């Protein structure tokens, strides 16, 4: 089965890009009309985030574009294993690459701050092909065959995939050697894994792993986001983030997670059709925390 998937990947990955994206966009549009469950999730999330700022027609159009972008992401996924550095020219254009290089040359390691935005899988391929491979934390898929296939695609360019349940020690080891790591920070987590910070003016349980990793490693944090521009992608690399570093580790975890989440939110506000709105970002609620009222309760950002 794995061999079949790789053969299929080769066939789809060598279809002309314009045709591949046309098919992916149509696939996403079809999903928007047929997948009522996820369409409603996207629309409800968009109303919660932009209900005061955008009309119902605007929200509906954004939701449709979200599905179309995901369809194109899916089809482009099959191209990723076959990309070479020379293929990036005119296809993936970086802005601010000197910010990454400057942070990397400090030799203390670099943590990439990003989320499920644009074609986020392309970020790892881009960095690896440019000579900056990184460790990426990923959840094991339920299907062993699909998990092996997805890992093969992601790692073929030189990146290393680390399972979520045993990630921290490996990431610290990589950063201590001056390497790079990434944890996508924009999905709901359980109370034990996160802290509650505001995302679009609603408390969202957010992974504190990046803040813990910064404290443990002293690595630089560089924001990186990718934006689809028709058949091309722009990778926007920001300046190294100034981290909160005091004697109060708990407050630092919360403050840095607030900072990281605000940076992600700002990008989502600029390009709302390119974020993964299918996810139930606000699912965990502070009032439902089983440890509420104890020292084990998840920390909460105050307004």
Percent of residues in beta strands?
15-25%
Outline: globular
N- to C-terminal distance:
52 Å
* Broad structural category: alpha/beta
Count the beta strands: 9
Please estimate the helix content.
40-55%
- Give the overall average pLDDT: 95
The rounded Rg comes to 19 Å
Point out poorly predicted stretches: none
Please give the largest β-sheet: 7 strands, mixed
Instruction: Give the strand line-up of the largest sheet.
Output: 1-9-8-2-5-3-4
**Helices and strands, in N-to-C order?**
HHHHEHEHEHEHEEEHEEH
Annotation field: number of helices? 10
Describe the structure.
It is a single chain. This protein has ten helices and nine strands. It has a seven-stranded mixed sheet, sandwiched between helices. α3 packs across α4.
Notable features of this structure?
10 helices, alpha/beta, 7-stranded mixed beta sheet, two-stranded antiparallel sheet, 17% strand, 303 residues
Secondary structure topology:
Blueprint lengths: L1 H12 L3 H18 L1 H15 L5 H22 L14 E4 L1 H8 L5 E5 L6 H9 L4 E5 L5 H12 L4 E4 L4 H9 L3 E5 L9 E6 L2 E6 L1 H9 L2 E10 L2 E6 L11 H22 L33
Parallel strand pairs: 1-9, 2-5, 2-8, 3-4, 3-5
Antiparallel strand pairs: 6-7, 8-9
Helix pairs in contact: 2-4, 3-4, 8-9, 9-10
How would you summarize this macromolecular structure in one to three sentences?
The chain is of the alpha/beta class and 303 residues long. It contains 10 helices and 9 strands.
